[in-house]
Amino acid sequence: MSNRQQSWPGHYPITSYALDAISKKWSDNPPSEIPRTERVLYVACAFRAAVAMDTLSDFFSGEMIHQLHSAREACAEIGAHATAMVLQRHLDDLAQHTDELTATRIAAGIPTQLACADDDLDELIARYAAKRVREGLLPG
């Protein structure tokens, strides 16, 4: 277990609350029917957990460009603009290098660059979730 895994306490309570409600809802509906607000929260949470737990390779498994694009959009939507910029740079790099080995190397550099980004993903995700629950846009 890495230091990163040991030090991340998990999602904030409001985030866990909304995420749990979304997960229950998703189990009964195809992803195409899930509202954008819910997809954004779900992807942001999955990406954050993958970064914290050193499991980005699992997060990206098989569909790296699609997952990276989804994570960039979710981060931008929740206000994590520095993180979204890091992810965009990696998308730009991937557009030039399509072989799997290069893609793996590019993905391996993401956590180091994210460490320099000035976004508190947990706080931004929690604010996004709380605001959307109050607005009635997230189940809760």
Describe the protein in words:
Helices cover 73% and strands 0% of the residues. By secondary structure, it is mainly alpha-helical. It has one domain (3-134). Helix 2 crosses helix 3 (36-52) and helix 3 runs antiparallel to helix 9 (121-134). The radius of gyration is 15 Å and the shape is globular.
Task: Give a nutshell description of this structure.
With 140 residues, the protein is mostly helical. The protein contains nine helices and no strands.
Mean pLDDT: 84
Radius of gyration over all CA atoms, rounded: 15 Å
Give the proportion of residues in helices: over 70%
Order of helices and strands: HHHHHHHHH
Distance between the termini: 33 Å
DSSP strand tally: 0
Provide the β-strand percentage band.
under 5%
- Unreliably modeled segments: 1-5
Which geometry do the CA atoms define? Answer: globular
The largest pleated sheet is described as: none
* Structural class label: mainly alpha
Number of continuous helical runs = 9
Number of domains: 1
List the helices and strands and how they pair.
Blueprint: H1 3-7, H2 13-26, H3 36-52, H4 56-60, H5 64-78, H6 81-96, H7 100-108, H8 110-116, H9 121-134
Helix pairs in contact: 2-3, 2-9, 3-5, 3-9, 5-6
